[in-house]
Amino acid sequence: MKYNRNEYFRYTFEEPCDATFRLIKQNDGSNGVELSNKGVCKIIDISPNGLKMFSELFISIDQLHHVELHFTLDTNPISMVGEFVWSHRKADGHEYGIKLVGDSESEKMIIGELKNRRRKEMELR
Description:
Blueprint: E1 11-26, E2 33-35, E3 39-47, E4 50-55, E5 66-72, E6 77-90, E7 93-101, H1 104-124
Protein name: PilZ domain-containing protein
GO molecular function: cyclic-di-GMP binding
Pfam family, one: PilZ
């Protein structure tokens, strides 16, 4: 198998990371966007361009395409907007695949936070 250094990695958490989310509803009028109340979720794995989250709540991703996520990987709180790509039903909830909409700075922040988190995990062992 050929290793491609340009491919992004995906970090799977030993213990899923706590997060909150708000669904973004695009209005067809002049009101712009409307946000739902906060919901809680767990981030199962993450890469600089996407993540897999688990929630007990059912989200109709056919009607609600975008989500605003708030989480902390190490020390800095991160807020990002994502787009639902897929969903799978589980016994106690639902898993969702989310493509993160960000720039190179947000990608660097995620990578840096993951490196710091992993360093701390290795020191505790």
